[in-house]
């Protein structure tokens, strides 16, 4: 490659390598670097004859870039990003663009923007979803940061992104500061919820209905043609059909101990910081934590006893109910995720386009599904929609699913089948639709032992009262606290 390159990529692992190939296929030139010589050599071999150069140093990479220089960092989140920025800064000038394409925490992105803004360097924190296949064929891209940088990377990003049916790219500007990485964090949290719900449906079919992997494969195959059509249902269908070397289902031989990289936990912690009840995603995170204590669970199973599940009803009718339960719970998961986005927009002064975010997720990413088109329609009709459950389409869907949803959870609970995400989804729905919760008693308790005060239903909001419940506590009240 003789002319200077359009973009540099640092980090030539699976994601960086595939993004480079995707960019080059879309007629942009690339220069790549990795600290690992073996990865550099492999990348050079794979890109031979293409508009791609491989270099052995950061200085060489920067020297081969057209100005303003565009550099995509594909290195592990955390200290590695900070170290790379420090090493790159001496080679960069004002208006050059640094792009963090990893799963960085949004607060780290905001800190990095503030640290390099005095040098005039433009910074983008961008979520990229779709795994290695998406990186190569078209991912979902969620950029945010310095808006001056967007026009300079937009042609590349939108060219390589996944496209929906009408050709719209699954990539657009999300917002300033850490908005891009925040949206990617929420995406990953919803992904945790989706996966846990699917696993609970699998557990019900396996443990309660006694279905084989092949039978479950057929169920997921059918579900993927209807309302539940999505990437995660599709791959679950394929996983259940996959056989080990001896012809038996491989899934049955995989240890039931789940890993995680932290983005689900970040979503849950952030929801607590912002006072948003993100119960389903949080339960999905805890479910992985519980799965991870495998040896302890094995010992507990020898001591603790519960119902021995045995289903005696109409299996086909129950599978219809299970499909409804999964769909209704999925609605709750997304409803909670978007309420977190709305709270973050208010807290951090971001102007988020919720329908546009749903569009970003309709292709290329792990949670892509036909379902997201309905979310976009909901926010297109009402950009100020406070909760997806209040949209007419989702209201009708969740109400028509209620009977099956409740029957599935009741049957699972009575037979000792573990369904934390299904259960918390229904509990959220029942709590959200209830005009009066028992928090009045809770506030009385808080006022009794801590003089934390309470509001009254017969007085205006914002007026706080304290009662000397025992006659011994005095009349001095603590400060009121509202999340």
What does this structure look like?
The chain has 483 residues and is of the alpha/beta class. The protein contains 19 helices and eight strands. It has helices spanning 14-25, 37-46, 58-63, 79-88, 106-116, 131-137, 150-160, 179-208, 213-223, 231-241, 263-274, 279-292, 294-301, 315-348, 354-360, 371-381, 392-414, 420-432, 439-450; strands spanning 7-10, 30-33, 52-54, 70-73, 97-100, 122-129, 140-145, 175-176. The chain has an eight-stranded mixed β-sheet, with helices on both faces. Strand 5, helix 5 and strand 6 (122-129) form a beta-alpha-beta unit. Helix 14 packs across helix 17. The protein is globular and about 75 Å long. It starts with 6 loop residues before the first strand and ends in a 33-residue tail after the last helix. The model has no long low-confidence stretch (mean pLDDT 93).
Q: Please tally the helical runs, counting DSSP H or I stretches of 4 or more residues.
A: 19
Q: Main beta sheet, described?
A: 8 strands, mixed
Question: How many E-type strands?
Answer: 8
> Helix- and strand-based class?
alpha/beta
**How much of the residues is beta strand, in percent?**
5-15%
Q: What form results from the Cα inertia axes?
A: globular
Radius of gyration: 25 Å
Mean pLDDT: 93
What's the quick description here?
With 483 residues, the chain is an alpha/beta fold. The protein contains 19 helices and eight strands.
């Amino acid at each position: 490659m003789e002319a200077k390159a359009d973009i540099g990529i640092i980090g030539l692992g699976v994601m960086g390598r595939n993004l480079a190939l995707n960019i080059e296929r879309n007629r942009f030139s690339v220069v790549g670097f990795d600290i690992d010589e073996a990865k550099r050599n492999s990348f050079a071999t794979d890109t031979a004859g293409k508009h791609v150069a491989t270099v052995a140093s950061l200085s060489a990479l920067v020297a081969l870039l057209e100005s303003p220089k565009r550099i995509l960092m594909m290195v592990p989140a955390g200290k590695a990003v900070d170290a790379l920025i420090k090493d790159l800064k001496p080679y960069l000038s004002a208006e050059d663009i640094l792009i963090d394409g990893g799963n960085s925490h949004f607060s780290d992105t905001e800190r990095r923007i503030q640290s390099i803004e005095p040098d005039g360097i433009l910074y983008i924190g961008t979520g990229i979803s779709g795994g290695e296949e998406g990186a190569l064929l078209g991912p979902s891209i969620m950029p945010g940061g310095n808006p001056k940088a967007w026009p300079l990377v937009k042609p590349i990003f939108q060219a390589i992104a996944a496209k929906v049916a009408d050709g719209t790219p699954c990539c657009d500007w999300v917002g300033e500061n850490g908005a891009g990485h925040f949206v990617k964090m929420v995406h990953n949290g919803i992904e945790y919820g989706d996966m846990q719900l699917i696993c609970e449906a699998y557990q019900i079919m396996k443990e309660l209905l006694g279905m084989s992997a092949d039978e479950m494969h057929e169920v997921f195959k059918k579900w993927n043609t209807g309302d539940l059509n999505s990437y995660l249902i599709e791959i679950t269908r394929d996983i259940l059909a996959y056989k080990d070397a001896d012809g038996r289902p491989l899934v049955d031989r995989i240890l039931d101990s789940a890993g995680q990289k932290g983005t689900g936990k970040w979503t849950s912690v952030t929801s607590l910081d912002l006072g948003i009840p993100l119960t389903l995603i949080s339960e999905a995170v805890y479910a992985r934590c519980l799965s991870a204590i495998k040896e302890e669970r094995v010992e507990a199973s020898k001591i603790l006893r519960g119902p021995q599940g045995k289903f005696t009803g109409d299996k086909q009718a129950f599978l219809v109910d299970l499909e409804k339960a999964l769909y209704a719970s999925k609605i709750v998961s997304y409803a909670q995720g978007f309420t977190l986005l709305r709270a973050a927009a208010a807290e951090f002064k971001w102007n988020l386009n919720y329908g546009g975010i749903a569009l970003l997720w309709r292709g290329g990413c792990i949670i892509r599904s036909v379902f997201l088109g309905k979310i976009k329609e909901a926010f297109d009709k009402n950009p100020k929609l406070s909760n997806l459950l209040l949209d007419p389409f989702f209201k009708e869907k969740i109400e028509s699913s209620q009977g099956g949803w409740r029957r599935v959870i009741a049957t699972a609970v009575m037979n000792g089948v573990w369904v934390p995400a299904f259960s918390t989804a229904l509990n959220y729905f029942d709590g959200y639709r209830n005009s009066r919760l028992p928090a009045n008693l809770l506030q009385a308790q808080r006022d009794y032992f801590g003089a934390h005060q309470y509001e009254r239903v017969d007085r205006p909001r914002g007026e706080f009262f304290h009662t000397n419940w025992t006659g011994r506590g005095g009349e001095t009240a603590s400060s009121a606290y509202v999340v």
